[in-house]
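Morning!

This is the sequence you dropped in the shared folder:
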Amino acid sequence: MAAAAAAAVGGPQAPQPELPAPGLALDKAATAAHLKAALSRPDNRAGAEELQALLERVLSAERPLAAAADSEEAAAAGGGGGPGAAEEEALEWCKCLLAGGGGYEEFCAAVRAYDPAALCGLVWTANFVAYRCRTCGISPCMSLCAECFHQGDHTGHDFNMFRSQAGGACDCGDSNVMRESGFCRRHQIKSSSNIPCVPKDLLMMSEFVLPRFIFCLIQYLREGYSEPAADVPSEKDLNKVLQLLEPQISFLEDLTKMGGAMRSVLTQVLTNQQNYKDLTSGLGENACAKKSHEKYLIALKSSGLTYPEDKLVYGIQEPSAGTSTLAVQGFAGATGTLGQLDSSDEEDQDGSQGLGKRKRVKLSSSTKDQSIMDVLKHKSFLEELLFWTIKYEFPQKMVTFLLNMLPDQEYKVAFTKTFVQHYAFIMKTLKKSHESDTMSNRIVHISVQLFSNEELARQVTEECQLLDIMVTVLLYMMESCLIKSELQDEENSLHVVVNCGEALLKNNTYWPLVSDFINILSHQSVAKRFLEDHGLLVTWMNFVSFFQGMNLNKRELNEHVEFESQTYYAAFAAELEACAQPMWGLLSHCKVRETQEYTRNVVRYCLEALQDWFDAINFVDEPAPNQVTFHLPLHRYYAMFLSKAVKCQELDLDSVLPDQEMLMKLMIHPLQIQASLAEIHSNMWVRNGLQIKGQAMTYVQSHFCNSMIDPDIYLLQVCASRLDPDYFISSVFERFKVVDLLTMASQHQNTVLDAEHERSMLEGALTFLVILLSLRLHLGMSDDEILRAEMVAQLCMNDRTHSSLLDLIPENPNPKSGIIPGSYSFESVLSAVADFKAPVFEPGGSMQQGMYTPKAEVWDQEFDPVMVILRTVYRRDVQSAMDRYTAFLKQSGKFPGNPWPPYKKRTPLHPSYKGLMRLLHCKTLHIVLFTLLYKILMDHQNLSEHVLCMVLYLIELGLENSADEESDEEASLCGPERCHDSWFPGSNLVSNMRHFINYVRVRVPETAPEVKRESPASTSSDSLGSLQSSRRPKVLQRENSGTAQVFSLVAERRKKFQEIINRSSSEANQVVRPKTSSKWSAPGSAPQLTTAILEIKESILSLLIKLHHKLSGKQNSYYPPWLDDIEILIQPEIPKYNHGDGITAVERILLKAALQSRMNKRIIEEICRKVTPPVPPKKITAAEKKTLDKEERRQKARERQQKLLAEFASRQKSFMETAMDVDSPENDIPMEITTAEPQVSEAVYDCVICGQSGPSSEDRPTGLVVLLQASSVLGQCRDNIEPKTLPITEEEQIYPWDTCAAVHDVRLSLLQRYFKDSSCLLAISIGWEGGVYVQTCGHTLHIDCHKSYMESLRNDQVLQGFSVDKGEFTCPLCRQFANSVLPCYPGSNVENNLWQRPSNRSIQDLIKEVEELQGQPGAFPSETNLSKEMESVMKDIKNTTQKKYRDYSKTPGSPDNDFLFMYSVARTNLELELIHRGGNLCSGGASTAGKRSCLNQLFHVLALHMRLYSIDSEYSPWRKLTQLEEMNSQLGNEEQQPEVPILYHDVTSLLLVQILMMPQPLRKDHFTCIVKVLFTLLYTQALAALSVKCSEEDRAAWKHTGVLKKNTCDAEKSYKILLSFVISELSKGKLYHEEGTQECAMVSPISWSPESMEKYLQDFCLPFLRITSLLQHHLFGEDLPSCQEEEEFSVLSSCLGLLPTFYQTDHPFISASCLEWPVPALSIISQWCSEINAFTERHAEQGKALLIQESRWKLPHLLQLPENYNTIFQYYHRKTCSVCTKVPKDPAVCLVCGTFVCLKGLCCKQQSYCECVLHSQNCGAGTGIFLLINASVIIIIRGHRFCLWGSVYLDAHGEEDRDLRRGKPLYICKERYKVLEQQWISHTFDHINKRWGPHYNGL
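The structure's back. Tokens below.
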């Protein structure tokens, strides 16, 4: 077949017509069928030629792109719809031909049937949501698509959901990458067996058509590519070409999705070399093909790649890819060495060209590198396709097509080899790319699919030199940004390092290559090859050395640095990713003894590289001062491989260590870093800016520490264990610059350090020694012990959440290390050391996460301050750990005072490192310890408790790790004479402790006190000077001249290392002399040093005992415990010494010393017997006195400040406590009703701004601080108990028909349809949606004070969370959010009470009074300040809600609107308060809602404004309720719409109208009268509604029973009689007749028992009684009684005065007994009923609907959420928005009504409002609660502000997962959701949530 195809190409070709010849217009299907038949014949040559000719015409590459290449207008004009039409035509042809005459869809289905779907292979792009299961994954990069994940069984596995960064592919079914147990149901079946064989003819056409099609595509790509000009990126042009090719590539992609059968055909086509050669060689006569081939060659050349031009090459069979280097050798020579690189790369090397060349020539020793970098030869379509993919910078579509083919095994291998072949080219393109981020992601998207597969990686490594290629490419990449290193010897340094400021490092461009490298090193077979290949190791160490010493910091000594460079980010990232991670990868394969050889190789080349480095930087023995680099990757490689060798491979440490000299060099730079850390923390680098602190923190930070500080300290430990201890110790103090401080003299000069830094540097040096000597991370701890120590350290600093612990514990950065975060050992250690504290809610509403806190025994035994110090990034964490430790000791009663850090026993040392302990037993250290103890005892300056603590810690370490106990005892007896001359006799701390030192010769400045008072004899022991200060004995003279010579003998020590150890002191003195004089001639300013001899007569033991006295402040406070209890010496572990302060520490040390040796025990006893004379007080010179006074004054000032602050805090606290229950002002005054003449006392208010108290007056009114907000909470009440759930399938939808708001809306519009508008607006309340809720914090202020306060806020430039222009402010006292001031009505408290005496007037009189009072028009009050304020607050109230929630009238702007709005405000506030009390009043007055209520003031304001309107006198509801009218007036005007029948009125609304129309303040008996009258109406409504609900028979029966009893005495108080009367009255109309049969079905014919009827009536009336009682409570200040739910009705009615007081409770309560009819009951009822009958004549249906009012609303709830967050996420994150029909980028869902919205989506924007803001206004009148689907958090919108509320979904460890970063399963936290709902109902979002910001309508 291939031959036939070739013939067709090579043969004579038909001339190509520009437009399709008429022949083509034939039916495509017929042509295709004909060709298929022709090709199916055995001799198919003719058919093949015909097909080729056809394809040649159809797929001509010239047409489309010629049009595209011209300008776009030409394309548009180029008839036939431009280039697109021709391409579509071509695609149509291809589809027809493939299907061979059949339908294309059927063909696809047929091919799919043969798909052996063993692999999923679904390819996704960035931002796709996928899953990763660590339990099932073999490779750490394993990922699954959501479908396969949910189809598989992963219960109990360690999985997480993640958002793909770069894209990926599903690994389900690939057993190389994941365990088979995790496969989903679809891919579990090894289905190859039962899939039938593909019939030959099905895909026959494809095999002919596809090569041409792909070639056509390649031609397009060649044509369209033009090299970008040097400076202008031409992405636009490339993108244009790609857009044109979109349909073709999509077509190929669809083919890949047809399954395995089609993929294998594609693989054949793509990898067939013959086809490629025939079609693309450009050898035929076809001009077009020739031109295309030329373009291809040009593109190759311009990419800096050579192409074997030699025509002969085509004759020879190409060698296989594996041996490509041979073929290359020929022209590698021709191109010359690497020195003459292609120009494109040479340009990058500006300035440092020569250097670049030098470096590169050194690297290119073999021509191998050349072939890797510069030669590409394409032999198949696949190779050239990949080439163009790279050229076009990895277009997403192409990448997806190439990846979609991967399930085909043969393709996978071919593609991987091709990818490797192009690897160098990819890197070059990436380096030049302007979009390197996107490109990096696409590269990794591909490579991670190829290299995660071990089998494949091994194959490519063996056949294509993958490792060589990678290392070379990495080297090559970094070479482009090298600069000269300035470390050490700036002039002569030959070392080059990467420049961290280059884009390559700053933008992490190297990331894809490094990530691939780490990926392949995680495969054992590949890593072994790497570790065995010496050449590779050398190259790699070369690469690592580029990073050695990068980003050098030089300490600024004079000016502050102008520009703080942030290059350190790049440097740390580069070391971690490019050096440390590959290192961890290699280490993970060196775990067993058999791998010793690998370690030896690495160590050998590492040391060679280090030696080269020392030579290159000209390093001798002293590091250059004032510079530090944190980057020593070579040191760290060496250290980590050493550690591994000893720990896992049982290698002998000494066999891999270099000589002493190299060790001395090795320790210098890591030690320099430790000293610099101390300097940085001492603020000595402050002029270098903040970034240097950043570096110091990053160096110890959890992600870096185990690749940085840990190896450094380990390396220092190794050096210390092998070098001379005196040398090491002196080096340490010298590096830390504190040598001069270590003198016994009271004054000294430090030539290298300012006095203010001395103390912290000394602390740093000692702390470093303690860490060095106590840390066992690499010296013998097992992995589990390390994990435990790390965890304890983190938990001691602070309680931690599970995720932050995972983050803070340094895991091995290599994912294959075995310790997976969250692995079994992690969880088991965690449960062993910590207790889980479940998330709790503080009353303030701040949300806590689930935390882990250390167990008590951990504090008791495992708290390790050393580990804490090592691991803290911020110094405050150390303090925090100590504070927590202190608190634990106090709480558990172990120690009451301020404890010192406890001493912790250490894990035993690994034998290889025993030498480390020699540091503790060397004279130099003992001298330092002795001197410091002495100085502390003598109170020299610059010493601190911390210093003492560390000194004692070191002594204790020495005692714990001492050599054979009594060995030195004899030695020390024999030579007391020697002691004069050297400090200590031996090197064992145990014996040196008891050694007395008598005299010390010191060098001091002449001004020092020692000198002045000295007598010529100069040995007087009692001279104050000698006691007061001192320096060290003879040996120490070496140190005292200026720069403490003992310690700076480094150079001499290097030369005579052996002699120095054994030298005598006299020699040393001679060595020193010349140096000192030369040192001190220079600085003339410094006073001369003279020698003084001090008498000391102390030993370490005696100093310790005196220290004990000093610390305890008592003479002779130390008494050896063993004298009382000899047991102590036998069982030394005494818990009482474990925790305590310095005194305890000293006692513990003395006890240990006594245990270690009998001599010590004896000497301690002796010292204690001598009564120690008190330390004489120091004489103080005037100058010293001054400084001391200053200090004291400062101290006192500090104490005063502390005291003030404490006092302030306590005041604030007590205020907060009282503020929590401030009574509302009118209840402040106790109410005393005296005799007949009550004393009128006015209410007094405190102004929280000016602090004055006084009444509120007309001209200076006081107001309550209030927050007005529109609320739709009431409207969300529903009438069923079950709260709605959030929809999580398409079927579940929420419809708001049954909400309170909807029901009221429907009712109002019904009324407005049939009745007169003005009366409609009195018949019902609005405000269920968008009602205005008023709340206060209870604080008052003068209104004029408030105005000036607002003025000052306006001028305040500070950014506030609220907008002052909108009148918002925070209460000046309690900082609660507010936006208005409600004026307090002036008047007394008592006038309420004047009217509380029971009145004995008849109800008739009261009714008349009420009517008269209402009749008086409300005169507008005189223009006072008060009335102005009342008006302005009324405006505020109106403006709080939107216009649509205020205007319900049919005539816009009618006064009825305002009237309706105002009484509805009162209704809204009462209803909401009722909801806050839980929907009933059973709990009585004991509710916080009452305390803060401002209803009283609000009523005054509303009443004042309502009185300005008058109700039409002929229609006053009051009259209708209380008077019988003549019948005829009803039948007046027919045309006019009738009034609303009184039975359709909402009684509660009537109540408010009646009360607000009365002059204020209201009298109690008037109030009761109004309530009684309205109750009669309510009761009648209840009866009418009941009658409608009864069945026909029930009604007849009731009617009958009532008639019999009609004339009994208490007829008016019997519901049975009233009911029957109502029924008979209403039967006159058509109300009951209209019931069709279907109606009966709706009203369930329950049989009504008297009990159920009574209950119905009570339930109908209860809401009214509740609101009325609340109103009475607020207006008259009466307490609400509490009661059981059953008796709520009776209790409330008696409280309201509806029930006669003498009412007996023994027989069951009947609601009708509350009725008191102002006029004969039956007549008024019949009057009311007749109105309804008149209406139902015409509209019976509506008449019935209006009668049944649903009054039993349940409390409002938010939607119920599902248990598991995943159910929400899976449904909503792919759901399309109903408005814009796109899948939103940030989907959100409203938790009140379930609406799905686009957060921030511009697609759904309307008039500059984004959808969430819009919805918050429509659904919640400005309050919206949205769940952000992609982040799992809840966002609150309140008006113009918003805040992130937090999440109600927590993971198994009780923490949020904002933005789903961790992707762990989340479960609903019911408590949190309750809190959210509570805040919504109580309108307290503004007060409880603190972080608000403006949203500018953009959400």
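Headline: The chain has a mean pLDDT of 77.

More detail when I'm at my desk.
O.
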